[in-house]
Design a protein that fits this description.
There is one protein chain. Helices cover 71% and strands 0% of the residues. The chain is mainly alpha-helical and 437 residues long. The protein is elongated.
Length: 437
């Protein structure tokens, strides 16, 4: 569960959702006074921020709930008109919710969860961020059934979808989509209740639309604070693509398929390698359900190059490695080298030969990994080995066809300028033959 200190709460603290950013911050003093403790909002804010940080510590958090801090925070959430005070209250409760005993107190405090959920209808960006973070923690914990019961209203779920689709604030977008991801990844009792309504309300279209928007931004100026937004959107789509009876809606979406393929084709992946990894897994899932989509990318050399470039980024991720081999195999089996003219075949060979160092490193590293996996009888290893063998067989066939064809034809000047390719072709053939199973 995510714990946040106060410092993060100050970032863009006055931002509003763009469709409602003309609202005034009406409150300049505290609206709820505890018995005998009148205070100005600035004093309340200072004290509240201290509690926000303290709540991240389990011992302090348990002491706070024993001393009725939740009852105090509930009263402020119910009557305070100050967005900043409500944000701090939600932030404190959000950190308390990261601990088992305080979470039990949160769930048992009369009306607290209902009041927290009501904060979804606020127009303040930071309050919405903290409300989404808190709800995410609730759905991921042992007390998730209580949170589901309050959240199952289509009005509430529709509000979250509206917020995600209309905010310009990257932090709020990440938190709201993160809430969808929590629903998808939570226990079955959570997803079974909430997911059907979310799908009816257009969750798939929302996620694809958000991905398209992030891809447009990514193709322009790179903005680091948006990388995590892209990642959480892709993770939500990837999980949705594995849900029985819902996967077809994701996997048959051609716009989505094009978007994730475009992500793989990005020339510089280091900054967004997590997203590229998720994209590769998602493409593998899509092609498992809709194998014909592989024909659309089988002649896309930029995609093939981008796919190979992801391998070094996932050296420690077996699922991603398996997905990459699966996609590469599905792509290369559709390459008809015997039907290509020499010039086009050469372009394929050029891409493969240019990656000889990378492919050698991949196969060497994975040979060592597979020795460890085989000793454990890994089923995943068997699947990966099958896809890898198909890929290597296809590379060998393509290279052999090139070697035989160029000996039978007079090469034009352009090809002769790349004589070093032959050296790399020989190395790649030897490498593939040595590692094929």
């Amino acid at each position: 569960m995510e714990q946040l200190g106060v410092s993060k709460s100050f970032e863009n603290g006055t931002e509003k959702i763009h469709m409602i950013d003309d609202l005034d911050d009406k409150d300049s003093s505290i609206r709820c006074e505890q018995p005998g403790v009148p205070a100005g909002e600035d004093v309340w804010e200072d004290c509240g921020c201290i509690l926000w940080d303290l709540a991240a510590n389990r011992t302090h958090a348990e002491l706070m709930v024993k001393n009725l801090v939740l009852e105090v925070l509930l009263q402020h959430l119910m009557v305070s008109e100050s967005a900043r005070i409500r944000e701090i209250c939600l932030g404190i409760i959000g950190n308390l919710a990261c601990h088992v005993i305080p979470m039990e107190h949160i769930v048992s405090t009369n009306r607290l969860i209902e009041i927290i959920v009501d904060q979804l209808f606020t127009d303040d960006t930071q309050c919405l961020c903290e409300a989404c973070r808190l709800l995410t923690s609730g759905l991921q914990g042992a007390q998730c059934s209580t949170w589901v019961e309050v959240l199952q209203s289509e009005q509430l779920l529709g509000r979250i979808i509206w917020v995600a689709g209309n905010t310009l604030n990257p932090q709020l977008l990440e938190k709201s989509v993160g809430l969808f991801l929590a629903i998808l990844e939570s226990q079955k009792e959570v997803s079974d209740v909430l997911l059907p309504s979310l799908m009816t309300l257009g969750l798939t279209n929302l996620l694809v639309s958000l991905l398209a928007s992030e891809m447009t931004k990514l193709s322009g100026e790179r903005i680091p604070e948006r990388y995590s937004v892209l990642d959480v959107i892709l993770r939500a789509i990837e999980v949705l693509s594995t849900v029985d009876c819902l996967s077809q809606e994701i996997c048959c979406n051609k716009e989505l398929f094009q978007l994730v393929c475009d992500l793989v084709k990005l020339p510089d992946k280091a900054e967004v390698f997590n997203s590229c990894t998720t994209a590769a897994v998602l493409i593998a899932n899509i092609l498992s359900d809709v194998p014909d989509f592989a024909s659309d990318i089988s002649h896309d050399l930029t995609f093939l190059q981008g796919l190979l470039d992801i391998f070094p980024l996932v050296s420690d991720d077996m699922e991603a490695q398996n997905a990459l081999w699966s996609v590469t195999a599905r792509l290369l089996v559709r390459v008809k080298e015997n039907e290509m003219d020499l010039s086009y075949l050469y372009q394929y060979v050029l891409v493969l030969a240019s990656k000889v160092d990378l492919i050698e490193d991949i196969l060497l590293d994975q040979k060592l990994d597979n020795q460890n996996e085989d000793s454990k009888g890994s089923t995943v290893s068997d699947i990966k080995s099958s896809s890898r063998s198909i890929t290597l067989q296809r590379i060998i066939s393509i290279l052999n066809k090139w070697t035989a064809s160029k000996e039978c034809h007079e090469l034009d000047e352009v090809m002769e300028e790349h004589s070093t390719v032959d050296v790399n072709v020989g190395r790649l053939l030897d490498c593939c033959c040595k590692h094929i199973e």
